[in-house]
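To the wet lab folks,

You asked to see what we're planning to order before we commit. Fair enough. Below is the target structure as tokens, and below that is the sequence we designed to fit it. If anything looks off to you, flag it before the synthesis order goes out.
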């Protein structure tokens, strides 16, 4: 890997400005702000109004009437129940995207529109008290978020420090980084959210956040919904982008639309909500968490609303960004906190598709939020969309991808990935399991130090030339062997429009397996990973992603070696003699080599990519003494 300069955006200057010059002072549930009404002063039948954007960028009023207050709804948090009155709300009821709409009684703010009932028949909403949201606003922030400096820029080539590891810890993948799996990561976050807020089947839940997706295929939107739906985000096909529209507002305002941008550019994805209260540089919004990950750094934008879409299940706003402003810096139980002056780190991504003449588009350029979960999630979703747009084919296809991940202070990590399919272009779900997505997730969730991804390039070559052979079957020419005699396996390979091919793979069997029965597994080379020692540092992790698989055009025959190997300090040793593992262990340290079962592998080259797998069993006669 070659060394590259550290390419931080100038946007890093002053990521978070100082706290608002207002100090909270509570006495019997009251605050010192004269324009706020405490929960203790709220009574049933009180009437007031709320502010939200029905269309465009300007907030409009809707009427409200207090039903009652639910005490101890959350720890140290009440919930105010209100009826809403407006011609659009009589039809739409509770609306996703209205989360955060400020509610006023007697001209004083009481909180934010935030909770509702799925399939509710009345326009009734739960209001998060503004006191809890202001507590979130006043929380101090660390000096760094994911290694991204809040106040200074590191010197060029400087590796990011390991400080502030607790920042965003709730979003971290719980597992070994080299075993990163996007689906498992999403399941972990969904489980934690359910334990805190209740599942989607709970009677009263946060109003979902519409995640408005533009420039992506329906397949990718469906994949995004599988990942993000259980997290309270509702992916919807819509428009989007990432630029600034002429005449767009320059600052947020109470009741205005706000978007959290996960992707922007040729593709886009934005969570839409409403600003509750602006104080100085900071604001609070939503009235509930987006993902409740704590300290974070995600790009935000002033939004505009195109329309309210009414639905019996859950109505929602459709909108788009009009001007990028600031960053989400804290995601708490009662609100999200945004700073006007903050600018979150982003990852420029370029996707280039080759081998599809006449494709409507072959190159995409966009930016993805730099986040432990959102980065791998939207890399996978975006790659799948680009591939389906360029080549939605349903015929034999092989593909090879080369990805370049630029890591601050470590240079370029070059990844290679291969695949073959008799049913057509890979779907989004397959790209979500690609080496690039797994590497990005592993890097950003590593437990040793912050890894800052500066850029990603993804080049994929498709071939529709019937370069695929199906492994139809395998059989042993001799079911029993003498010690030291090789196993000969006849494999049958089928290709479309070509004669069936048979060939014999000769697999050496060491004499030490005399008297044993061996199960021989046959798999495509691109599906078999080489043994690697568990990484013990970020450097080890990066090295493990170099040349991780066997040759793509090959069949790998594997069987259990019947002996132990050890992994220690980034290295592996296989087929050790008895007692060797114990000899390597120390009674003076709890950090000892880890054992694993070793495999014997034999690689047989093929002319084409192979799909399918098989297995055979062979007996080795006992050795004659």
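Sequence we intend to order:
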């Amino acid at each position: 890997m070659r060394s590259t300069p550290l390419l931080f955006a100038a946007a890093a200057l002053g990521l978070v400005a100082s706290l608002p010059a207002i100090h909270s002072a509570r006495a019997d549930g009251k605050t010192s702000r004269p324009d706020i009404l405490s929960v203790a002063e709220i009574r049933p039948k009180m009437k007031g109004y709320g502010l939200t954007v029905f269309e465009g960028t300007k907030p409009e009023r809707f009427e409200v009437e207090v039903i009652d207050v639910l005490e101890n709804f959350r720890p140290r948090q009440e919930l105010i129940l209100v009826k809403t009155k407006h011609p659009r709300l009589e039809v739409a009821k509770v609306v996703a995207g209205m989360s955060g709409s400020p509610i006023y009684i007697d001209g004083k703010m009481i909180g934010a529109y935030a909770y509702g009932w799925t399939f509710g028949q009345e326009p009734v909403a739960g209001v998060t008290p503004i006191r809890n949201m202001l507590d979130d606003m006043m929380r101090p922030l660390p000096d760094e978020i994911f290694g991204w400096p809040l106040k200074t820029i590191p010197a060029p080539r400087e590796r990011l420090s390991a400080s502030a590891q607790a920042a965003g810890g709730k979003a971290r993948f719980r597992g070994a980084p080299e075993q990163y799996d996007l689906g498992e990561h999403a399941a972990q976050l969904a489980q934690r959210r359910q334990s805190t807020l209740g599942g989607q089947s709970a009677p009263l839940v946060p109003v979902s956040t519409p995640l408005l997706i533009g420039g992506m295929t329906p397949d990718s939107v469906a994949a995004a919904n599988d990942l993000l739906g259980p997290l309270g985000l509702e992916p919807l096909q819509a428009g989007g982008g990432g630029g600034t529209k002429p005449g767009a507002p320059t600052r947020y305002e109470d009741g205005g639309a706000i978007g959290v941008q996960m992707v922007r550019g040729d593709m886009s994805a934005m969570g839409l909500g409403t600003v509750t209260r602006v104080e100085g540089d900071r604001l609070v919004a939503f009235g509930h968490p987006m993902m409740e990950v704590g300290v974070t750094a995600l790009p935000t934008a002033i939004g505009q609303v195109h329309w309210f879409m009414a639905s019996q299940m859950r109505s929602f706003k459709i909108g788009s960004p009009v001007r990028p402003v600031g960053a989400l810096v804290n995601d708490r139980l009662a609100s999200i906190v945004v700073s006007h002056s903050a600018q979150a780190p982003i990852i420029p991504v370029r996707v280039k598709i080759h081998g599809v003449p006449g494709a409507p588009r072959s190159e995409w350029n966009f930016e993805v939020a730099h986040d432990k979960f959102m980065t791998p999630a939207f890399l996978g979703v975006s790659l799948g969309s680009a591939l389906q747009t360029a080549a939605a084919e349903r015929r034999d296809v092989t593909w090879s991808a080369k990805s370049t991940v630029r890591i601050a202070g470590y240079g370029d990590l070059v990844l290679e990935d291969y695949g073959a399919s008799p049913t057509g272009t890979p779907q989004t779900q397959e790209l979500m399991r690609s080496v690039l997505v797994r590497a990005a997730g592993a890097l950003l969730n590593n437990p040793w130090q912050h890894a800052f991804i500066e850029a990603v390039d993804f080049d994929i070559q498709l071939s529709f030339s019937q370069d695929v052979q199906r492994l139809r079957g395998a059989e042993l020419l001799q079911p029993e062997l003498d010690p030291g005699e090789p196993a000969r396996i006849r494999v049958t390979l089928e290709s479309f429009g070509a004669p069936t091919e048979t060939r014999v793979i000769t697999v050496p069997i060491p004499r030490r397996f005399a008297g044993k029965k061996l199960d021989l597994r046959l798999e495509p080379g691109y599906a078999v990973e080489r043994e690697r020692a568990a990484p013990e540092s970020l450097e080890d992790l990066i090295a493990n992603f170099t040349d991780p698989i066997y040759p793509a055009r090959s069949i790998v025959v594997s069987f259990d070696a019947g002996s132990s190997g050890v992994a220690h300090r980034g290295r592996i040793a296989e087929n050790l003699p008895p007692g060797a593992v114990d000899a390597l262990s120390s009674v003076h340290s709890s950090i000892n080599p880890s054992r694993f079962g070793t495999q014997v592998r034999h690689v047989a080259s093929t002319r084409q990519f192979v799909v399918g797998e098989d297995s055979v069993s062979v007996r080795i006669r006992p050795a004659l003494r």
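Structural context that might help your review: Confidence is low (pLDDT under 50) at residues 1-31, 151-166. Residues 374-390 form the longest helix (17 residues).

Thanks,
Computational group
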